[in-house]
Amino acid sequence: MRRILPVVAVTATLPLVLGSSAGAADDSGDVTVVNTETVQAKLDATGALQEARVYEQLALSGRGTATIANPVSTSGLRNLDGFGAFRVEDGRLVTQVEVDGERRLRTVSDFDGDLPLGVDIRYTLDGTTVAPGDVVGRSGLLEVRYTVTNLTSREDEVTFDDGRGGTATATATTVVPMIGQLVTTLPPSFTDVQTAEAGVAGDGRGGTRLTFQMTLFPPIGSPTAEFGYSARISRGVVPAASLTSMPVSPLDYPSFKGGSASYASGAESGVDLTSGAITINDNLLRLHDGAATLLAGLVQLDEGAGTLRDGLTLEAAPGAGDLAAGLNGKILPGSRTLADGLNDQLLPGASTLSSGLVDQLAPGAKTLADGLNDQLAPGAATLADGLTDDAAPGAAKLAAGLNDSAAPGAAELAAGAAALDAGLASAAAKAPALIAGLTQVDDGLAKVDKGLADLSTQIGTLPTKAQPLRDGIARLRAGIGSTAAPAPGEQPSLLYAVNAVRSQLGAAATTAGDTVDSIADLKAGVTSPTTGLAAFTSMLPAGAQASYQAGLGNVAGGLDQLSAGMSDSASKLSTAATTLAAVQCGLSSATLPGVCSTAKPGLLEGLAGLDAGLQDLTTKVVASVQGGVGSATDTPDDETLRGGVNGLRAGVGTIQGGGGDLVAGLGRLGDGASKLSTGAGALSTGLADAASGSKDLADGLAGAATGAAAISEGLDGAAAGSTKVADGLGAAASGSEKLLAGLRSAASGSSTLAAGIGTAAAGSTTLAAGIQRAADGSELLAEGLGTASESAPQLVDGAQRLSDEGTSQLVESGAQTAATFGTGYAVLAAGAQRAADEGMAYGAPEGATGATAYSIEIAGADGSGATSIGKGVAALALFAAAGVVGTVVRRRTA
Asked: Is residue 706 part of a domain?
């Protein structure tokens, strides 16, 4: 059965200086008072309480008079210093004393309070539970188990920092913290002694001394301690035992002060860990939101990049290729052929024709007309007159002249006139084809001009088409942002969130590492043989040291596990910080100098380059192409395609106008040449006839006169025809000069056109190559954005998983650590307060300090009642308790 057992308890001992306020009005001087209480109890071998007494001692030092009211048990109160009577008022022993140096006042009385410990003892012999008396005289395997319980346990509400910026309350078991030891000596007849909890030593007389240590308060120990031993016995007895105990303050007692501080440090570390983990988790959630925004932007950008890729690959690049192919393969060679034809063929031919008409044919025709009108026609008339009037005398001369000169000259004149007529007919027949060809050239140039205008208009829409992509890039760059803190009310950027999370993870890793060091210090505080709990080992009996050290080993093992967990957390946090640094470098290589490689630009730098490339493409290409194409009002002096086309069309118009004049002049010249040919033929025939008939001239003067009249009439017609021929050739010469000027203008325009088309062709090739590079870049951009948009969900999911599986667990772990250590320290603090408030059996005088020691003597069983050994042990225990109390008091008052 369970019995209540007295034990040893000590409260904080501070010296009391009693002066006039300590007692009666005549009190004077300075007197220091220390009150010690020793409760001695006796139990039988079953643990049943038989009797208990309390010894009171007042230790006074100083000089003066003091009145002391000491709370005591008044039942059986006796003076141990003499036979004087006491004055008792309201349960207090009131004494007025004079002190000069040191003085002791001692009393004893019956203990009528509630003892703080209960003891339950069980005996088993050969596996069967027996009463203590059943062991006497028996042999076999005896097992004795002691259960000591701190009976001051109660459930209290304790408060601690929850690590989330507030406090938490928990219901925990608190006690008046007590330590103690149980000592028993086994006789020589007990052999093969086995125990897992006691320190074992010999007693010098063949017996075995066992010492059990007890720490009867949580969380360092437990409110209940169970221990015992087994032994082979013959002629069995139940050995007596003694148990001593005292209350302690775990916050001040040297053996537990370090452990309590470790709980405080652990609680603080748990709070720091929880706070840091909450901050990290919040930042991770912001990272998750930023990654989701990034994902949406990447999806939109991916769609825009796909549209850009399709537009560049399927439309712009083929169109630019077609344009370049058309300009290089068709328009440019055609313009060069046109320029070569105008410059190398048509212009020289026209120049030769103009020179022949102006310099030779027109002056010759004019000379011929002048000769016919001014000389040949009058001469023919004179000839007719001469033939009529002077024929005979001149017939011989005429015949000679006709045969030797006139007939051949007339033949040559007829042949030249016929050739002139044929040439002019051919020129007149080809001139309409030239004008028609120039009309076709003008139509072609109009189409070229329209195509250039369309090219200029369409290329001008490139910036508008590229703007959605640039807007998407701008939004993406804004979403990535920088590491600068956002203004109040603004959404944090992705780089800021990643940088903040990385910094906090690094700080958390450092904190976790510091916590590992704190745990190491806590372990040192537990295991150190000089300053930790292990220091208490040397104060214990040798038989109890192993059990105590085993308990400390369990605590150290738990601290090792905690240290390993914190080290693992620090490693994982450091790895997470390193991983986020790589993510941050991927976002921008400029944010972590010395960490990020500048040779590997991040996404932000790539987007900036892409945006600059698009800006350069949409401004320089458009400006270059539109500048090369020109406007509808440009002239060749503007050195643009449309200016060249305009100049070429003007030249073609000039050629067309001169061609009309040329056709008209050629017609008139043809008419005159035809008449000239007819007249020259008649002249040749007449002269031939004159030549053939000159022999008969003398005989046929009448016929000659008639022929001369015909010649005169023919020459009149020839003169009139030569005048027309001269006029026609003059008009042809004027038209040829206009034709030549138009052809020169057309040749110049064609050269300008060819040069402009060459520039356009080169530009179109550059444009096609640039658009192809843009198309290739858009393909890479689309692929990269596709990969990014496919990978971005992993960042979102990873951030969420890191929050759910990492930082959230870290928050819970930190909160659990804060709760575990915070509750433990709160329990220790509550125990310290209870030790101060409830540690003494009756209490000390007002303003004084004191201590209470509990000593219990457990009787043995040998068939003859309590043995002298048991009595000796009890006496020794009492003196030991008094010695411990005195030592503690002296240390605290020193």
From this structure: no
